[in-house]
Amino acid sequence: MAPPAHVTITRDRRTDGSITYGLRVRVDGTDERVPLGNTAEGWDETRAEVARRQQVAKMELGLWSPRAGGIAASYDKEPTFRELATDWLQARKQNPAIGSRTAELNEWQLRRYLAPFFGELRPSQITPEKVKRYRRHIHAENTKIRAAAEGGAPLRDPRTGRPLRTLSNESINKTLRTLASVLDEAEDVGFVTRNVARGRRTREPLERRRPRGIVEVDEFLSLLDAAIQLDRERHRPNTLARAADVRMLRDEARLEWAVIAKQLGLARSTAFYLYACVDDRTGPIWGARRPVIAALALAGPRVTELCQLNVDDLDLTKARFYVNDAKTSAGIREVDIHPRLLEELTAYAAYRPPAPGNAPAFPTRTGNRRNKDNVRLRVIAPVVTRANEIRAGRDQPPIRAHVTPHTFRRTYITYMIAAGYDLPYVQAQVGHADPAVTLAIYAQVMRRADRDQLKAELRDLLGVPSEVRAINHDHREAQRTGEPIKSFRGADLSAIVRGIER
Known about the structure:
There is one protein chain. α2 crosses α5, α6 crosses α13 and α8 (257-264) crosses α9 (268-275). The strands form two sheets. Strands 1-2-3 form a three-stranded antiparallel beta sheet, with helices on one face. It has a three-stranded antiparallel beta sheet with strand order 4-5-6. It folds into three domains: 6-202, Tyrosine recombinase, N-terminal domain (DNA polymerase, domain 1), CATH 1.10.150; 235-279; 289-498, hpI Integrase, Chain A (Orthogonal Bundle). It is mainly alpha-helical. Helices cover 50% and strands 7% of the residues. It is globular, with a radius of gyration of 27 Å. The protein has helices spanning 45-60, 81-94, 100-118, 128-150, 169-189, 217-232, 237-252, 257-264, 268-275, 289-299, 303-308, 339-351, 372-393, 405-418, 423-430, 436-446, 451-462, 474-481, 493-498; strands at 6-13, 19-27, 30-38, 314-315, 320-323, 333-336.
């Protein structure tokens, strides 16, 4: 009689100090290894234990069958890297403990970089010198991409048609970690005696990062002003410019529609549409830039977490939202919505068209779900540009920080710490598994000479009382007792809905 199924966690400590986690599955007389991931990829004991339990549940439901010996052992002879990587990726996609976004990243790394270079080599043919050549190859490719972009003819991905982007040293190292994970399979079975992609000597030195600032309070308010202006603009500037050309040819030159369309290179239906396009900033609000900026800065989600939020994930009655998928187990959490953000989101809900519960919480104008590139290019970049125009008109300096989606996350942590919230609460709100990042920002706040003034400003901004008994629990306590919560500077909801600028 075969012994009962048993699943244990394996830990392979690497020379670079990292730990690679896996599962050892013993069932029906077989003994198989299921790879999970490395600590550099966000894996830890908690996440590995969750994966172990999921594996057990899968086996109990009959949804898993063993492949004796694992991935590499299924080959009669040593496979090519491409063959090994294909099976490794398939196993990653089938592993319930590995998020879909992680698997998508691995697939992109393999298809775009690793497979073209190592694809037809066998694991035993991948030497330290080959790994060095790969790194030099990426840097040479980066040089070509930069030169082509500077020459006005950017290189494009033949598959997607998008401009190619250079790979930073940090991203090169991420592809090397994926290479090492694939070669782990060959090492486990004995095709190679040493994984040449492991160890610090295979890694690129990290570039010195430029100082990463935060968005100051006055700058954040300028961003909100800019966002509501853009949200009220139904049409983009280039559309309005073409619409003006159509109206001039129709109303002043008195040309026929067919002539206008031919002269401007448009279809007649497009000319009709453009004729009616006007810059009406007093009508309904069309965009979601303001609530996106407010949510990023006043709640601190990762940009991918914000993009994945559904309508049902925003509970405005209980003043919280739910992050159901994240890159670490600590990232799956409930996030408190503080009074100022609650006003912003309530105003947004008032003018947003009705949508089903599984619809994106912050959709594009066409109703589609945003992604990180959309937020960066379509939301943050134009908002920062408009905000700097507004600030120039007010004789204020431009926004100093290099504003990215992650800038708002650092900004939120800074705001919360400066406003008096304790570190464990802030860490839980942002889903940090490692408190080191939170502590680093705490140290920066403590070095500020104006921290007392900043504390008062931020409590006012967040809409929390200036004197707080237990500031990290004040909002939920008010929800429980029914005690009214202070509104931000007395602003009423109708003023926000109308988009009145402060």
